[in-house]
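User: My instructor asked us to take a sequence, write out its structure as tokens, and then describe one feature of it. I'm not sure where to start. Here is the sequence I was given:
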Amino acid sequence: MATDHDQQSTEILPAASRPQWRRSSATSRLVRLCIKELREILRDRRTIVTLVFMPLLVYPLLSMAFQRFALSSLTSLSEVRCLVGVAPESGGERLAGFLNAGEFLLRGSTPAGTETSKSSEDTVLNLNAEPEIQLLYGDKLRQMLSGGDMYQGVSTGALDVGVLVLEADDWAQSASVRRQLKCQVIYRDESALSKVAAEYITKRLNAINENYARDRRILLPTDVKLEPVSGSGGAAAFSLTTLVPLILILMTITGAVYPAIDLTAGERERGTLETLMAAPVPRLGLLIAKYVAVLTVALFTATANLVAMTTTLVATGLGETVFGAGGLTINLVAQVFALLILFAAFFSAILLAVTSFARSFKEAQAYLIPLMLLSLAPGMMSLMPDLEFSGLLAVTPLVNIVLLARDIFEGDVQPTLATVAVLSTALYAFAAIGLAARIFGTDAILYESQATWVDLFRRPEERREAATIPGAMFCLAALFPAYFLLGNLLHRLPGASIGTRLAASAVITALLFAGVPIIAATFQRVRFSSGFQLRLAGATTFVGAVFLGVSAWPFAHELFLFNELIGLGGIDPERIESVKSLLDAWRDLSPVVVLLTLAVTPAVCEEFYFRGYLMGALQKSARPAITIIVSALLFGAFHVIATSALSTERFLPSTFMGLILGWLCYRTQSVLPGMLLHATHNGLLLMVAYYKDELQSRGWGVAEQTHLPATWLACAVGGVFAGVVLVLLSTRK
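Assistant: Let's start with the prediction itself. The structure tokens for your sequence are:
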């Protein structure tokens, strides 16, 4: 049986120095182990019941209950009085006459003796049930509005519907047009009663048009335009779409709970975990295999529930009732499924972290019951219509997915918050896997000796040459939400000068990107020189880094312009103007202050973590190319949300710079040349913007959003080539 020390000593070898057959053999063993775990869990009948039979029973029962609720509530509509305001006063009687005519046509089109009969579609919603409509105009309407206009009356709930009748003299003069009724129907989009009243009016006016169009192909008698408004007062309306995220998430949790218990605490209780730990696979590999099995079952459960829900809504005709006029579209289903994948990945990792500590099936169940109850609280938050999806909630686990799913169903998604919610949840999943890896298979738990949750915070006995991947990802999971929240708080800091904001931004960057990794390295007993790759490099390497820093920015600029061609995003005029005003404010400061706060500090601190701590951890178990690419992608994703607004146009240029910085760090085995390259790149761009007017006066200006001259690009190619050659020559040993 391989000891932890043997595994650690193997892991700290550089990936490039390991034999190829060992990497291939470990990968194939890991794949076979994943298949084995998945096969075993799918053989269990309890898993099949959760996967198949529960969705087949739950959603039809829910649809039947909802239909019964809808029928009973809509049947009583005849006892509900809807207040409809009509303006101007002369249009009230005209509208009443048209509504009476439409009512006569609708009743005349229903065969005698069949007034209570309904089609299969009408049976669902009982569309023949109609409310009592009371038209208000003149003095009664003015008294009801209390000096406000029609839009305000509908928005505050004083009126259920407002109708603006457009006078003939305002839009035409022909005699045929004067007989036409042209009106605008205003209703509250989130109020079911307001929608019913608006439908009552439009149905009768449309009935007149349909009857009139059978014999005449001229101007129709009525012209109706619906205009929804948002409510601004009164009790918030309850939307059925808020229930869907809660149901889907609860069902996904249900599918993942039993596999997580059985594959960890269940194996320990059966006495098979010791044999499994003796397999020639690292402990983290065993955990990943179990995670893949739990995640697969959770995704199967999520898919089965989503298919069952979609089929039920389509078969019963409830799609438009729950999701509005657009119904349940394929695009909506795809977005929800993507969120369920993310949620399943996050919660599966949480479940494994909890159940890995338990020593028996019952103990794991005792741990998970409070976890399930805690999961219900964020899920219930989606039922609060007044709860706004804000920056703090976007980085709150589970709450962000529930509220994002609610906004997707309601068609009101903010791209910045959605991106932050997705990235933060993915990072939390990595952190949970790292936590589970720290617990899973430890001697105290494996051999059933006394263990407590304090073991999670126990420092390793031996020093490490580099951080573990879970430890590095745990740092990133802490850095991401903290930087987002503090950055937004700084952006909204009232009364602060530009100098104060820049200084505060530099302090936040240093505390997070340097302070958090240092604390983590101290706790994990990681050597600073090797863990952060703080090794000395040759002088030629630093010269090459300067060449690369000066010459790489034209390519980053062209990638920035390339974003618009591929639809990744561009800068709108408003943001360009805000950047220009920010540059004008910078010019009131010393260029030294600008360089220190915006060039040197971010360069040193970001390289300290991304190319120092993170790349050092990745190099233990991944090939150099994979290490460079992964760190560059994370570096680019960070810069997308590094500002107060979603900056998708920064992803490609930042990732490109991350690739160069990663290659430089790999070649030199030091983070110091990358710090110089990064600071040179940032400083050059800042000084070009700072002295923009002076450069333009000398003919060096370049218009925004334009490609650079070919001579500039040629010089950049030469500079990059020189920098690469210098780095290769200084590291050829």
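For the description part of your assignment, you could build on this observation: DSSP finds 31 helices and five strands in the chain. Try explaining in your own words what that tells you about the chain.
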